[in-house]
Amino acid sequence: MQVLPQADETAILERSGEYTAAEIEAMQRTVLNIFERWSVRDADTSIILGGVSPKTLSRWRQGQLGRVSRDLADRMSYVLGIHKALRIVFVDARTGYRWMQTPNAAFDGKTPLDVLLRGGLDDLQRMRHYLDSVRGGW
């Protein structure tokens, strides 16, 4: 049995046709900007992104972008989709940013951020689907 060298994770993502290294780096930069606009603390960013360390977030801010797992890439993609949906639903971008911190009856009085802070990928999916349904969706 031949043992193959361990493949670079980014290369695997690129071969799978899911995300290119350039897309991942763009997502890393953009997600940090989105969380800043939503007034999300680093500790909460870590939870939403599935456990990214504060040290990693600091490196991203310094432009030291790198490889990510498939789970993290998917999480960042959902954050981008949520942001896009908010920009469509709310004419004023600041209203959409504040919406993330506003209690909502659709979430049993919790804020959208509270929902995301449960930390599951399915919570990001739920928020994206909710916003897509509000805006008219697919």
Structural features, described:
- The protein is mainly α.
- The protein has one domain.
- The chain is 63% helix and 0% strand.
- The chain is built from eight helices and no strands.
- α5 packs parallel to α8.
- The longest helix is centred in the middle third of the chain and has 20 residues.
- The radius of gyration is 16 Å and the shape is globular.
- The relative contact order is 0.12.
Question: What is Rg?
Answer: 16 Å
Query: Tally of extended strands?
Result: 0
Taken from the alpha-carbon principal axes, the silhouette is globular
Binned strand content: under 5%
Whole-number mean pLDDT: 87
Parts with pLDDT < 50 across at least 5 consecutive residues: 1-17
The rounded distance between the terminal residues' Cα atoms is 48 Å
Q: Element order, helices and strands? A: HHHHHHHH
Q: By helix and strand content, what is the structural category?
A: mainly alpha
Largest sheet: none
User: What's the tally of helices?
Assistant: 8
Helix content: 55-70%
How is the topology of this model organized?
Blueprint: H1 9-16, H2 21-37, H3 42-48, H4 54-61, H5 70-89, H6 93-99, H7 112-116, H8 121-135
Helix pairs in contact: 2-5, 5-8
